[in-house]
Design goal:
Elements (H helix, E strand, L loop, with lengths): L3 E6 L5 E6 L9 E4 L6 H20 L4 E6 L3 E6 L5 H17 L7 E4 L1
Parallel strand pairs: 1-6
Antiparallel strand pairs: 1-2, 2-5, 3-4, 4-5
């Protein structure tokens, strides 16, 4: 199976969806906001290990404020003082490492 991440922009320029051709989350949908709180742990358990690692790693990136995670989609919201040109490569690196176990060069990236 090939490794594919399709990046979808939204009318709201602060939001991007990353469609992944592998299961990322065991839950239908979960929502996380910065900062992650102790109460987030029960929701992180619902998404499963790979999804929880994706959420924790993305929340460590400066500028990431919210994450929506579904089985094949990770939605990322960024702050007004950050831009996608600087953040998207870091988001993609996290997804490649945590979902596919490889680096960015081994994953096909498409923009919608």
């Amino acid at each position: 199976m090939n490794r594919l991440i399709r990046v979808e922009s939204h009318p709201n320029s602060r939001v991007r969806d990353f469609h992944i051709n592998r299961v990322v989350s065991q839950s239908v949908i979960e929502h996380f906001m910065r900062p992650l709180r102790d109460s987030s742990e029960s929701y992180l358990t619902k998404v499963g290990d790979p999804g929880a690692e994706v959420v924790r790693s993305l929340m460590r990136l400066p500028g990431v404020t919210e994450i929506f995670i579904k089985p094949y989609v990770v939605g990322v919201h960024i702050s007004d003082v950050h831009d996608w040109d600087s953040l998207e490569p870091s988001v993609l690196r996290v997804l490649c490492t945590k979902v596919f176990g490889t680096d960015l060069n081994d994953v096909q990236i498409e923009h919608k």
